[in-house]
Amino acid sequence: MASQILQDKVVFVTGAARGQGRAHAVRFAEEGADVIAYDLCDQLDSVAYPMATPEDLEETVRLVEKTGRRIVAEHGDVRDRDRLAEVVDRGVAELGRLDFVLANAGILPAAGAPGRDITAYTDAISVMLNGVYFTIEAALPALLRNPDGGAIVITSSAAGFTSVSTGFDTMTHGAAGYTAAKHGVIGLMRHFARSLAEKNIRVNTVHPGGVATPMVLNEALAEWAGEHPSFSAAQQPLLQLPMMEPQDVSDLMVYLCGPSGRYMTGAAIPLDAGQTSK
């Protein structure tokens, strides 16, 4: 049985239908938290791999409920601030409070023909930079009502410290948008960390390297990586370890949101086995 260090807390997770978002939702539930889960569950034309489905979100619900915790799960776009606010309000009305925000929703529109279209750039910025800002803004009223404060963790990437593009042959609109968005959320994190510290709300970014999720393990990205050896070489970590699993990122999310992370705010934390230290 888990230690239940987040007993009766409530977490809001975007991109919760699968991958890292699902892992975070389930892990927080195992630690005693209730969950507000949000995911588009639809396809964007700029993304070459299959995105999450309504069935994926249903599975997240099943896995959270299996832990004995409650979950409010809704479809929605992080580019839609009004929808985000509506879902947060509904979740707080049902679950009673909000303690943590995991701004996790993301896309990787770098590969294939879609990645070479300008919409890959605009979608990347809209989802992973504007969408993060809208997520936090929509959740802030509920967080500010919490007398205990809370924590916000933004999912950035190793690409928040370097570039997806490794040369002229990998210079796609999608690679530029992903890189810019993942750098940009560090600025948002620092803005909110300074602004919200007096309210006891901590804000950090987490920067995973390659994680074994459908966003990374798919035919489109594998084909693109095979065509561009420099891209594959840049993803190699220093530590000789198996590919990171979503649950490994969840461990850090729990650390940052739980009592162990009470002194941490304004930090951009690499979780990449040394990939960006080379």
UniProtKB/TrEMBL annotation:
<dbReference type="InterPro" id="IPR023985">
    <property type="entry name" value="SDR_subfam_1"/>
</dbReference>
<protein>
    <submittedName>
        <fullName>Short-chain dehydrogenase/reductase SDR</fullName>
    </submittedName>
</protein>
<comment type="similarity">
    <text>Belongs to the short-chain dehydrogenases/reductases (SDR) family.</text>
</comment>
<dbReference type="InterPro" id="IPR036291">
    <property type="entry name" value="NAD(P)-bd_dom_sf"/>
</dbReference>
<dbReference type="GO" id="GO:0016491">
    <property type="term" value="F:oxidoreductase activity"/>
</dbReference>
<dbReference type="InterPro" id="IPR002347">
    <property type="entry name" value="SDR_fam"/>
</dbReference>
<dbReference type="InterPro" id="IPR020904">
    <property type="entry name" value="Sc_DH/Rdtase_CS"/>
</dbReference>
<keyword id="KW-0520">NAD</keyword>
<dbReference type="Pfam" id="PF13561">
    <property type="entry name" value="adh_short_C2"/>
</dbReference>
<keyword id="KW-0560">Oxidoreductase</keyword>
